[in-house]
Amino acid sequence: MIDTVQAFIQSINERKHVLTLIEDTVFAIEFxxxxxxxxxxxxxxxxxxxxxxxxPSIKFRIHGEKESVKALISGREKFxxxxxxxxxxxxxxxxxxLLLESFFYLGKTEKKMAKIS
Length: 117
Fold this sequence. Notes:
Oligomer: single chain
Number of helices: 5
Strand content: 25-35%
């Protein structure tokens, strides 16, 4: 799971325009998958990872199965779709959910193949 999150961070860092989404934010996202917790810190346009649970004042937890979290991070599924289907759970304000959806979608690690006409 940590490899998937690290690939996502690398993908995000290659897309500087995506980092502008979080340039005014300071919070953490904890991915809770079974007994594993991976913390992703978003702070003033930077993203970093820790495999230790975090304790900043603002944090959001995303609970789900490993495949659902991987689908979110890789860009195969949209965040709100996974939430509506019950594949992921997250308690956050709607505005934050929209921000996270944009962040995950634009930072996706899977490349879509271009259609050749």
